[in-house]
Design a protein that fits this description.
Elements lengths: L1 E3 L6 H14 L4 H7 L4 H20 L11 E4 L19 H6 L7 E5 L3 E3 L2 E3 L4 E5 L6 E3 L11 E3 L5 E4 L7 E6 L4 E2 L1 E2 L2 E3 L5 E3 L17 E4 L7 E4 L5 H4 L3 E5 L4 E3 L3 E4 L2 E5 L4 E3 L4 E5 L2 E5 L3 E3 L9 E2 L4 E4 L4 E5 L2 E14 L7 E9 L2 E13 L9 E9 L2 E5 L14 E4 L7 E7 L2 E5 L2 E4 L10 E3 L2 E5 L3 E5 L4 E4 L4 H9 L5 E5 L1
Helix pairs in contact: 1-2
């Protein structure tokens, strides 16, 4: 491994300052690397420890929110006939939560250590958070544990089992034993002659009888509404202790201007938290994992196969305030955090006051994704303004279960695609940007003045890896001895810390 350290002339002074900041607990990850000239191998060990500490810290964050209105308490041993106004009289179900006449300033508090299955339809101005002691309250998009609910029956096809529960909403994947493994979703690739192929092997594939690989599954959601799984080691319910189903649908959606705090959201086929144009959205101290993979549409983008989707936290459209802080996000089919819009409309879209800070992201196809397309009409104005991405730890983009995507070359730690992307006061600073299976950065805009400014970030990539892709003008740069120069020329990054690893 080779280590390159920049700005050595001020290292001694900064080391003293950063040491004091670390002792006080206020130094950023990037500042730590800047203040210490260490080998890549040693730095990665430090980073692993920091990651573990950060993950544990987020999972154990206490609830500290101010509620101006009425508090409603929800617990698994509650009763929907209760008023929900005290911890001693909690309501029980998410259905009841969705039926409450909530007002701006109210809060819905879920009891820590409890688990729900379902989807929250948020009300404008309401806070959704936690109370009590213990692990964060957990909400699964998965309707049930398919290892303990329902029956897997062997079909006439060898090693192919059908789940007896009707599932009309498309399944993104099946997660086994809470993340030990997951299933591969087989989709049909349509040929000009009318035949269909397996999306991954390109072998003929018509229905479940053509499943051949262990843990491949086919969801006939338009026909029988059943899930079929190929299992070489016998009945899935006996093979696995748990089987969670990533069903299509967001875990939290509805009206905006909400706060989501200290919740654990897992196992859904669409977005964990998903909104269109809204006034504001705040997400703090949350854990989100195993998100996405359901079919967005059968025939879009000119493809001859269905397109899948699913982000952990998304705003599709405009916003006046979007704040994501101190969240742990992992195993997402698309992006961990994103604000985006194709621009395919006649309305003005402004994405303002967006901050992604202090988050830990691992094993997502994109850690952070953003884009804003060009409006179709001249009168519509599109703009991003006051965008800040800081103090995030972004690791292993393109890894995780999203590797089963058919589009293998798209991953990036920060992804903007080749869109218009007009922006002012856009800063990306003090982040650790650690490895990607493809380009580390895809940060582009239709005009050079719209590109974000990068400051004091740590960049880590594998030897011989890819550095920067500019989707708008098709420029591509490897992660090599010129990477630092490219960062400076494109994004004015003059204080980069760069590590190359095996």
């Amino acid at each position: 491994m080779r280590h390159r350290f920049l700005n050595h002339s001020v290292a001694n002074f900064v080391t003293y300052i950063i040491s004091a900041m670390l002792f006080l607990g206020i130094a950023t990850q990037a500042e730590y690397a800047f203040g210490q000239e260490v080998s890549a191998e040693k730095y990665m060990k430090i980073l692993d420890r920091k990651t573990d500490k950060k993950r544990k810290s987020i999972r154990n964050t206490k609830t500290d929110i101010e509620v101006r209105g009425t508090k409603y308490y929800v617990a698994q041993d509650g009763n929907d006939q209760n008023d929900g106004l005290t911890p001693a009289t909690p309501i029980k179900s998410i259905d009841k939560v969705n039926s409450l006449s909530l007002k701006a300033g109210d809060a819905v508090l879920f009891r820590r250590g409890d688990l729900w299955r379902g989807h929250i339809t948020s009300c404008y101005g309401v806070t959704y958070s936690a109370y009590g002691k213990g692990p964060k309250p957990t909400i699964y998009g998965s309707p049930y544990d398919a290892a303990t609910t329902g029956v897997w029956r062997e079909t006439e096809a060898k090693n192919v089992y059908v789940y007896d529960q009707e599932l009309p909403d498309d399944i993104g994947t099946l997660v086994f034993n809470h993340g030990e493994d997951c299933a591969f979703k087989v989709m049909k690739v349509h040929q000009a002659n009318g035949s269909t192929l397996h999306i991954d092997t390109n072998e003929p594939f018509a229905d479940y009888r053509d499943l051949k690989r262990d843990l491949d599954f086919y969801h006939d959601y338009l026909g029988s509404k059943r899930v079929y799984l190929y299992s070489e080691k016998g009945n899935p319910a006996k093979r696995f202790n748990s089987i969670e189903l990533l069903t299509k649908g967001h875990i939290i959606k509805g009206s905006g201007n909400i706060i989501v705090d200290n919740l654990c959201l897992k196992y859904c086929g669409s977005h964990g938290i998903g909104f269109g144009t809204i006034d504001s959205l705040t997400v703090t101290n949350c854990e989100l994992g195993w998100i996405g993979g359901s079919i967005q549409a059968e025939d879009i983008f000119g493809r001859n196969h269905p397109t899948r989707y699913g982000n952990a936290i998304e705003i599709y459209g405009g916003c006046n305030y979007f704040f994501v802080d101190n969240c742990y996000i992992y195993q997402v089919y698309d992006a961990a955090i994103t604000h985006q819009h194709q621009g395919d409309g006649n309305e003005t879209i402004r994405m303002e006051n967006v901050t992604y800070s202090n988050n830990l992201v691992e094993d997502c196809v994109y850690s952070i994704e953003y884009f804003l397309g060009k409006p179709r009409v001249e009168k519509a104005k599109h703009m991003m303004e006051n965008i800040l991405m800081c103090n995030n730890i972004l690791r292993s983009a393109g890894e995780g279960w999203g590797k089963q995507r058919p589009d293998k070359t798209t991953p990036a730690q920060i992804k903007s695609w080749g869109h218009h992307n007009p922006a002012t006061n856009f800063i990306i600073r003090d982040n650790i940007i650690d490895c990607c299976t493809e380009f580390l950065l895809n940060i582009d805009a239709g005009d050079k003045s719209w590109l974000p400014r990068l400051e004091r970030n740590v960049y880590i990539q594998r030897r011989g890896g890819l550095g920067i892709a500019m989707g708008y003008n098709a420029q591509k740069f490897n992660f090599d001895k010129n990477f630092n120069k490219q960062l400076e020329e494109l994004y004015h990054e003059t204080e980069a810390i760069i590590y190359e690893v095996e």
